[in-house]
Design brief:
The complex is a heterotrimer of chains A (107), B (166) and C (281). With 107 residues, chain A is mostly beta strands. Helices cover 0% and strands 50% of the residues of chain A. In chain A, the strands form two sheets. Chain A has a four-stranded antiparallel beta sheet, with no helix packed on it. Chain A has a three-stranded antiparallel beta sheet with strand order 1-2-5, with no helix packed on it. The longest helix of chain B has 20 residues. In chain C, the strands form three sheets. In chain C, strands 6-5-7 form a three-stranded mixed beta sheet. The chains are: A mainly beta (107), B alpha+beta (166), C mainly alpha (281). At the A-B interface, strand 4 and strand 5 of A face strand 6 and strand 7 of B.
Chain lengths: 107, 166, 281
Amino acid sequence: MADARIQVAAQIRRGEPFEVKVIIRHAMETGFRLTDDGKPIARNVIRLVTCHYNGAEVFRAETSSGLSANPYISFFVIARDSGELVLEWIDDTGVKGSERAPVVVAG
Amino acid sequence: MTNPSSWPAAPAYLPRRRAVLAATVALPLASLVPTLAPLTARAEDKPDVAAFKAYVGSRRVSTGRLKLDVPRIADNGNTVPVKIQMIGPFAAGAEVRSVHLFSEKNPVPQMAVFHFPVALPRIELESRVRLAGSQRLMAVATLADGSLHAASADIVVTVSACLDGS
Amino acid sequence: MRPWWWPVDASIVMRFAQAAGAALAACAVVALTLFSSGATAQARSIALPDLRSGSTYMSADLRTMQGDDFANPGMLWVEKGAKLWNTKAGAQDQACATCHQDAKISMKGVSARYPAFDNKAGKLLNLEGRVNQCRTLRQGAAALPYESEELLALTAYLAHQSRGMPVNVSIAGAAQGHFEQGRAQYQRRIGQMNLACMHCHDWNAGKRLLAENISQGHGNAYPAYRLEWQNAGSLHRRLRACYFGVRAEMPPPGAQELLDLELFLAWRAQGLAVETPGVRR
């Protein structure tokens, strides 16, 4: 499965905020659902999402079962140098994921 | 729409089915009107979201600058788009550090905390949340100087028309 | 004294009777032609110009979500499908791409004419069936179960190659019988609620059921991401959900009943643009 997708704004100017959109493939199992014979399905949600830009953390989200499945978040980042965005996340079972996207800054 | 000709005609003394159906549907929908009316951020009302009150404690909370946007009626409680905005400029030393999102009725009242380690001239954040029924949402922005800004939004969440056991 | 209506000349009566008889016979012939199993002359409960895709019954938020290829969760499956297309599988160690090359070219318009009767297999196949036929017969790989990530991904990817193109299935020849079975199923009352598909989707499309709008019930956006499922799902899953909704026993995915219904629905939606991956409530 495509684990995650990152979309970075096309036009990025140094010093200005640019939009980053992410969507992560994850069922975000709440722990409140039951199987057909009444047994609870264990909770497993992404609990932390971080975004690093050229090594520095620029965004962090402490998430819960309150976020929808296949969580979608969009936020802004201040443009500095061209480089790379690294998105990372970890869920309740400890499984980590990551995705990268290039950042090309004009000016 | 007309019934097949093979069906017996309805007795003339009964109200037309569509009128009855319309009346039956209109009644519950009419009762929704009072709750639908004030759907913009009711920041001036006393907030009654427990998790929000616990976070804020006795600190002073400003309203009006932080915006929380949700649809009036959710298409489906599983996936509700949420937009949080706070337009600057922010004074030096008073930028937004984090935004908390609280739910009135969800089993997990603190839905998310978004952190901004690098100061931004404005906050624009979108996500999709799960809502366990019609309720009020509260967002709180915590600024670097410790001040708090809050916004609330009410949303109607209905159950699916047909149960789905697929 | 004869009544005023009695014809003066008895032969007029005879000629009138002959003309009436001929007209009646002609009507019968025309009726037989119109309502017999002729592929071009099926009566449609919703006329083609009145067809409305499910997306027209959705809120602006959902239409935006579907229209944005990044924000559309269904695209996660389309992307996975693209990867699987190029992944070797089975005893033959071949990928779909080995035979079919670039799906953007070779698969363009293909899903729009499914379900289709496969002469070699001797049966009606939907997209899932066609994929699994290729996997088992040509790749020597195991068939993929309905609602598995892989089958959803491949069918979403394939149907996506027909996005924007009109649904256009054939109900001629061997497909005829399946079409008729499908139509009979569409009109058949089922479940504790004793409702047929047509009661909601032909007779009450556009009206409200609790807080939801009833759509015309087309499958042109499937496989679709359904908020209720928080997952992508096939058309068979959606049909099964409707069976459950009227408290009927759900046929298993891939059942002949659902295949025939799928063919009828595709004929009923002729001309609607494929929207896969759709986003639905």
